[in-house]
Design brief:
488 residues; alpha/beta; six-stranded mixed β-sheet; five-stranded parallel β-sheet; 19% strand; binds flavin-adenine dinucleotide; polyamine oxidase activity; FAD/NAD-bd_sf; Probable polyamine oxidase 4 isoform X1
Length: 488
């Protein structure tokens, strides 16, 4: 594919494709979805170019190496440690290790919660018996919310339903420290959706089809997968797309400096946050049903503060939680030492609190979490280094992952996914079977968008004779090694 327009953004009088016999596709976004799409089309002998706004690949997968070893600042879990996971062939082929944090029996809000301890704001440990009992009560409350759902035709938030249940069942209400533990469970649930409980749809929150095998941390980080997918693909970093002109036979994609790219089709995989903020101008305008789908879906936020220490001063547990009178004020640290052997704790915050954390400087954010840690462990040392994420204000993501807002129309995801002529939609938010918000969902959505685009172009251009519809997947996909899982 030729880079046909230099600055100015207008078509030159003579537009020629370098090799008119090969269909061409522009993939927008170099996260796992865009890379999966680009790789598949590349392997199917299409001419592909991938435009990525950042100076790095991976998007919401961001494995940082500044501590001297990999630390995932975006996605870190594989949700569904099983061979049915679309990422399993890649993980096996690359020989990547997984540390399983919970098994098949885990529910959405305790996917990383098999060994943990909770502390109150003063740093006193919450009796484990209370944690278990309140956990059981929370499960009962959620079971009762199913009845609330059945009794109401209109959707409401999960939080509203919890209050209705507690009104009806005073025996499920908690007081004092137990109330704070209940808030902590709500905080954990909010972390799964990266949104507050008053925003999450009661109708949809538990409709997700979680893959089997439980949840596992990628011990070497997600980065090797990104590198493997990117190999040999024509990638242009620092190319922020600002305009997409979708014509009957061609798509023209314009980047920030005015340079234009033309191809037979394009696949857009930018985060939902970017579409919501209208950072890309579409010509013609997106139809109203597509605009509605973009606004009807939620896009939450989660942030991480990774702290590297010179020694381990905390117990050998996976999670250290802090309870408080509101879910907003609760928190928790993931102990990476358990999975990787490195002395790192990762503080995780979701929803409004995650956005509020972004208002602090990195130094203040690190100080804030260190204060909490020092209450729990008065002998805590200062971190050697720290990393603070800002996914909510990062202009390349404007949030973390999609979730179901209260009152979301049932077909929102289908409408978001639906192609428009030569323009196809990939990315986490369009994934099938409710795998939105995950890495494997984003990957599968990229493959699906590439397959639709491929079929469309082969039909439109009549190239069935010399191109394969099913691509050869290459050595990394063909390997038959088992998944390497520690802590079975
Ligand atoms: C903090 C955090 C924790 C998470 N934890 C997990 C987890 O443990 N497990 C899990 O399965 N999932 C997790 N997720 C979700 C998972 O990371 C995403 O679902 C997935 O990585 C999304 O991939 P994607 O390719 O759809 O989007 P992205 O990775 O966001 O890729 C889109 C790309 O488009 C680029 N872009 C944006 N605007 C433009 C533009 N105008 N022009 C060109 N390029 C543009 C972006 O820079 C980005 O590289 C987490 C996400 C976050 C942020």
């Amino acid at each position: 594919m030729e880079n046909l327009i230099d600055n100015g953004g207008t078509l030159p009088s003579q537009v020629e494709r370098q090799n008119s016999s090969i269909p061409s596709v522009i993939v927008i976004g170099g996260g796992i979805s865009g890379l999966a799409a680009a790789r598949m089309l590349h392997e199917a002998s299409f001419k592909v170019i991938l435009l990525e706004s950042r100076d790095r690949l991976g998007g919401r997968i961001h494995t940082d190496y500044s501590f001297g070893y990999p630390v995932d600042l975006g996605a870190s879990w594989l949700h569904g440690v099983c061979n049915e996971n679309p990422l399993a062939p890649l993980i096996r082929g690359l020989g990547l290790k997984l540390y399983r944090t919970s098994g098949d029996n885990s529910v959405l809000y305790d996917h990383d919660l098999e060994s943990y301890t909770l502390f109150d704001k003063e740093g006193h440990q919450v009796p484990q018996q209370m944690v278990i009992e309140v956990g059981d009560t929370f499960k009962r409350i959620l079971e009762e919310t199913e009845k609330v759902r059945d009794e109401h035709t209109d959707d409401m938030s999960v939080l509203q339903a919890i209050w209705i249940v507690l009104d009806k069942h005073p025996e499920l209400r908690q007081e004092g420290l137990a109330y704070e533990v209940l808030q902590w469970y709500i905080c954990r649930m909010e972390a799964w959706f990266a949104a507050d409980a008053d925003m999450i749809s009661l109708k949809s929150w538990d409709q997700e089809q979680v893959l089997s095998g439980g949840h596992g941390l990628m011990v070497q980080g997600y980065d090797p997968i990104i590198k493997a997918l990117a190999k040999d693909v024509d990638i242009k970093l620092n190319h922020r797309v600002t305009k997409i002109s979708n014509g009957p036979n061609k798509v023209m994609v314009t980047v920030e400096d005015g340079t234009g790219f033309i191809a037979d089709a394009a696949i857009i995989t930018v985060p939902l946050g970017i579409l919501k903020a209208n950072l890309i101008h579409f010509e013609p305008k997106l139809p109203q049903w597509k605009v509605d789908a973009i606004s009807d879906l939620g896009f939450g936020c989660e942030n991480k503060i990774a702290l590297q220490f010179d020694q381990v001063f905390w117990p050998d547990l996976e999670l250290l939680g802090i309870v408080a009178p509101t879910s907003y004020a609760c928190g928790y640290f993931l102990n990476l030492h358990k999975a990787t052997g490195h002395p790192v704790l990762v503080y995780m915050a979701a929803g409004r609190f995650a956005y509020d954390l972004e208002k602090l400087s990195d130094e203040s954010a690190a100080k804030f979490v260190m204060l909490q840690l020092k209450k729990m462990f008065p002998n805590a040392t200062e971190p050697v280094q720290y990393l603070v994420t800002r996914w909510g204000t990062d202009p390349n993501s404007l949030g973390c992952y999609s979730y179901d807002l209260v009152g979301k129309p049932e077909d929102s995801y289908e409408r978001l996914r639906a192609p428009l002529g030569n323009l196809f939609f990939g990315g986490e938010a369009v994934s099938m079977e409710d795998h939105q918000g995950s890495v494997h969902g984003a990957y599968a959505a990229g493959i699906m968008a590439a397959e639709s685009c491929q079929r469309h172009l082969l039909e439109r251009l009549g190239y069935f004779d010399n191109l394969h519809l099913v691509p050869s997947r290459g050595a990394i996909h063909d390997a038959t090694f088992p998944l390497q899982i520690s802590r079975m």
